[in-house]
Amino acid sequence: MKVVIIGGVAAGPKTGAKISRLAPDAQVTLVEKGEFLSYAGCGLPYYVAGEVKEQKELMCTPVGVVRDPVFFQNVKNMRVLNRTEALGIDRQQKTIRIRDLKSGQEQLLAYDKLVLATGAYPVRPPIPGMDFSNVFSVQKIEDAEAIREAVAQNKARDVVIVGGGLIGIEMTEALARHGARITVVERLPAILPMMDPELVAHVIRHLESKGVKVRCSTAVQSFEGSGSAQIVKTDQGDIPCDMVIVAVGVRPNVFLAKDAGLEIGKTGGIKVSAHMQTSDPDIYAAGDCVQAVELVSGEPCYVPLGSTANKQGRVAAVNVCGGDDVFPGVLGTAVIKVFDYTVARTGLSEEQARKAGFEVVTALSSAPDKAHYYPAAKTIMLKVIADRKSRRLLGLQVVGPGEGDKRVDVAATAITARMTVDDVAHLDLAYAPPYSPAMDNIITACDIVRNKIDGVFEGITPVEIKESLERGDNILFLDVRSPAEVAAMPFTLGPVVNIPLGGLRQRWAELPRNRQIVAFCKISLRGYEAAMILQGEGFTNVKVMDGGLVMWPF
Amino acid sequence: MKVVIIGGVAAGPKTGAKISRLAPDAQVTLVEKGEFLSYAGCGLPYYVAGEVKEQKELMCTPVGVVRDPVFFQNVKNMRVLNRTEALGIDRQQKTIRIRDLKSGQEQLLAYDKLVLATGAYPVRPPIPGMDFSNVFSVQKIEDAEAIREAVAQNKARDVVIVGGGLIGIEMTEALARHGARITVVERLPAILPMMDPELVAHVIRHLESKGVKVRCSTAVQSFEGSGSAQIVKTDQGDIPCDMVIVAVGVRPNVFLAKDAGLEIGKTGGIKVSAHMQTSDPDIYAAGDCVQAVELVSGEPCYVPLGSTANKQGRVAAVNVCGGDDVFPGVLGTAVIKVFDYTVARTGLSEEQARKAGFEVVTALSSAPDKAHYYPAAKTIMLKVIADRKSRRLLGLQVVGPGEGDKRVDVAATAITARMTVDDVAHLDLAYAPPYSPAMDNIITACDIVRNKIDGVFEGITPVEIKESLERGDNILFLDVRSPAEVAAMPFTLGPVVNIPLGGLRQRWAELPRNRQIVAFCKISLRGYEAAMILQGEGFTNVKVMDGGLVMWPF
User: Could you tell me which residues come within 8 angstroms of residue B131 by beta carbon, excluding any fewer than 6 positions away?
Assistant: First the structure.
């Protein structure tokens, strides 16, 4: 069996290696346009940051063997043609035309099975000045080397990052480690569009606390300067710079597939079955060039990630070799380290859930990620998205210095299994004071959702409060914090009465019965108790501020 | 509705508070024998260690309010009778006889619904010398205070910990922080019986690297000394000491329940339904006094934990108030910090899985918990337990400095959802270099199991290798590490041939075809590649050493 694989970064080498192991007689040839193979593209920001010291570390196995063509031949039994471009696929003849970029020579390569792992390419916006040598993108090792070189030459003091997605924000932290003054410019109303707005607000605050300027709803018009970009012109004014990083997203590289007449999905990625098979049964595809299925909504989606590429590569390999493995889909799970914060999400966002037709109920919850008395405990803020009718968990988002990735991984597992918030609330998660509160954060957050669904109390989200205040609704806020807490973090949003929780059972008569009351405290646990006390005394118009003051995003 | 709750530590206060919120008109009375309420018993070792500075922190809400009877009355609307003992239950009259321990006065308390949250008590083994004042147990705040006092007086230089369970090992670390020389004495062949032996071996090594002596299969005969215990006499010799901690387990406190004729389960805990109802429909029970169901086997089990107590308390409260909530059971999930290691587990152990009738297949896997080039990456060693026939994940155990608790929580969720190893291998877990390898550790480990089940390769566990060597089997080991690695960590178990993996495709003919070959490397990833190369060349008797040299436990 002759197998040709096009693409040598993540999905391609994974597929080839697995095929070689499953079918030792297969002749596997991997074609890669670039010099480097199987390198850790996701590691580039950490290489720029200097946390990863050597380029080599990104291209080695964990024991330090460089993954070059000799390695692939000797260890993986794959012939690797790097610096070789695939020009076209002849599906009738089952051949590929390739060109050796060193010699310029072209030849045909025959295949029985073909695997496309052509990856993605960074979007290059048509901004005047894109060609200045200090305007960088971040995809290849060569990009990272050039940025490092500029940093070494002290040419990264005032950096403008164009695009507030994952790579833009990772590069923000990487360059801030070198002392750069950084401005992130984002065309959309918020950075990190994978996250819901209330949570992004906290990420922006954290970035600003580190000296990073974040300018949303701002469109770049041009890069200006003589010899190099010195000014980023935007519709909101000029920003001086000595370096620009452009990271406005990636697109699936489907040129070959399209030329060959393979079906392309509506997200722009190659359409594949759960077996990773394209519309041609002898051609498979995996990694950043394919469209995936979002598991909750069943809708097509495009979420390029190294983790998915590896999993899909294995599935493709098993099926190429005559086995039967399926890749069910993704949840859009993502995580990013933003200075001291972990920012992560999985499943549907609130908006996605509404669009998918769910009757959405959400909860915000802020709590220490370990026993509150354990010194290493750090706050995490969670947002749970669930369906009122089926009670299914649909999504989870987390922001904060604590270990949010753990809760998101639990949620990803639970959502995949179509668990309800009740199921999640009863999970036997690992508890000891250095690892979680007795009630893990995700359990508490799901219990809040359960209380809402069961009508135990009514919550009001920050977004709803803001809208209500803008409408001029006659809300009375009930602050049940202690006087010391109030003095330390005064409340300024609107008319407020302060009755510490411990005194509420004596003093509830001071409150008006005919006015909407919004109870809160620092994290709204006492706010919830307060609402329950007032309901017990016959108040009928009491809501709890979701997430408390700590999570107030505006 | 009159509700009486007996027990004021974890499940009791949780149940009472939830009832008060759901049914504001209920008259809730909580009876607690001790002085202190709702304190964090699990936090005692960290208080002894000095990580938690003030006793008060263990008894406060996260915002620093002490949970005393006044707090419960004002905030939770519960009457609390502390220093009050429950003497007996009259189920016909629906009354409880209580005694005020301050005044000695007795009275009857009427109930409509009764909740038993009587907790557990530490086993007090009948060892001569148990009454010496420097022989401590660890259950109450008073115990921790007494131990701290002895430490402050420099009376904890040579400490013997009797019992190598969770509390014994937590206390080991706590006292080592004060500079104590510590010997752990365990009657069984290994400490931490929740863990499988191959993994415990690594924990013991780590303890020894911290200067802790671990003596297993050693029975304490007596504590000897004049005025205080100065010698721990064991069947393996004497151990000098100036402090002894006895932590040989806990038993459910079911005296009241038994006296009242309530059904007791075969594990010794109160038998309850999934609604947390005892054999008397007006009496509920929750927390460390009840028997739970192990979710994989469906067998009764007894796993006292603060996390479970809180969840059960909420379920009991909902049902007391006429709602309908069920507590499905537990997985024996546990986690413990042992100096720099996280040691955790969930689901069935290998032995439990065999006993439950599964056709067990296991995998050992060792890898960094983050991208291997990311500087903060640390090793974790995993053992996966699965069922060959159904392909279900049955259990996961982890040991090492990396973040094992995250993988165990994912596994606990997956096992609860009855996921197969295939399902787990395709999970969309959160990936970025600071959080996990591109293929998360649990995914890699499940892929190894899948390869074994699918017959892609055959593994041999350290236990099997040891048995085979002891039988005198003619094994040839194939070490495919580099010469530098071999020099750094020589292999001494048996006859070995060293062929670095990169040379194996040229040199396989040097190996005998008629002898069992066990291939390995540091973590057995290259060992696996080697086995695949040899199988490809027609070798039929090649196995891979599970987990590689790093996980060799003996």
Answer: none
Q: Is B12 exposed, middle or buried (0-12, 13-18, 19+ CB in 10 A)?
A: buried
Q: Which of A10, A77, A505 sits opposite B74 (nearest CB)?
A: A505
The model's pLDDT over A416-448, given as tens digits with 9 standing for 90+, comes to 999 999 999 999 999 999 999 999 999 999 999
Report the alpha-carbon distance of residue A405 to residue A346 in Å, rounded: 10
In total, chain B counts a number of residues equal to 554
Query: Are residues A430 and B405, on separate chains, in Cβ contact within 8 Å?
Result: yes
DSSP B173-185: HHHHTTT-EEEEE
**Catalytic choice (A42, A241, A301, A446):** A42
Range list of H helices, A81-165: 141-152
- pLDDT confidence bin for B63, thresholds 50/70/90: confident
The residue count of chain A comes to 554
Set of chain B residues whose Cβ sits within 8 Å of the Cβ of A323: 454
Mutate to test the interface with B, among A406, A409, A544 (most CBs of B within 10 A): A409
ipTM over 0.90: yes
- Give the nearest partner residue to A335 out of B10, B403, B432, using CB atoms: B432
Residue to mutate among A325, A373, A397, A446, with most B CBs inside 10 A, is A373
The 10 Å Cβ neighbour count of residue A355 is: 13
Taking CB atoms and an 8 Å limit, are B295 and A428 in contact across chains? yes
Q: Per the structure block, which two tokens stand in for B229?
A: 């215990």
Beta-carbon separation of B367 and A414 below 8 A: no
pLDDT tens-digit series, residues A439-481? 999 999 999 999 999 999 999 999 999 999 999 999 999 999 9
pTM above 0.95, yes or no: yes
CA distance A97 to chain B (A): 30
The letter for the amino acid at A57 is E
Q: pLDDT tens for residues B191-243? A: 999 999 999 999 999 999 999 999 999 999 999 999 999 999 999 999 999 99
Choosing among B73, B406, B407, B409, which should be mutated to test the A contact, i.e. which has the most A CBs within 10 A?
B409
pLDDT at A63 over 80: no
Cβ of B439 within 8 Å of Cβ of A367? The answer is no
How close B416 comes to chain A (CA, Å)?
Answer: 7
Look up tokens 């009354």; give the residue.
B95
| A307:B46 CB<8 A | no
Please check whether residue A516 is in contact with residue A497, taking contact to mean a CB–CB distance below 8 angstroms: no
CB contact under 8 A, A43 and B502: no
On the question of pLDDT at A275 being above 90, the answer is yes
Indicate if B42 belongs to the active site. Answer: yes
Q: What are chain B's domains?
A: 2-120+251-320 (3.50.50.60), 135-248 (3.50.50.60), 340-453 (3.30.390.30), 459-546 (3.40.250.10)
pLDDT value for A40 = 85
Question: Inter-chain contact A330–B430, Cβ cutoff 8 Å?
Answer: no
User: Taking a C-beta distance cutoff of 8 angstroms, is the pair B190, B399 a contact?
Assistant: no
- Asked whether B475 and B545 are in contact (CB, 8 A), the reply is no
In chain A, what residues touch B482 (CB-CB under 8 Å)? Answer: 63
Using a CB-CB distance cutoff of 8 angstroms, which residues of chain B are in contact with residue A405? 406, 430, 435-436
Distance CA B370, CA A390 (A): 36
Residue-wise pLDDT tens digits, B43-60: 999 999 999 999 889 988
Dihedral angle sign, alpha carbons of residues B6, B11, B17, B18 = negative
Q: Work out the mean pLDDT of chain A and round it to a whole number.
A: 96
Residue A143 CA to residue A245 CA, distance in Å, equals: 10
**In sequence order, which residues have a C-beta less than 8 Å from that of residue A343 and are 6 or more positions away?**
A192, A195, A199, A203, A335, A336, A337, A398, A399, A404
Fill in the amino acid letter for A430: A
Condensed to tens digits (0 to 9), the pLDDT of residues B433-447 reads 999 999 999 999 999
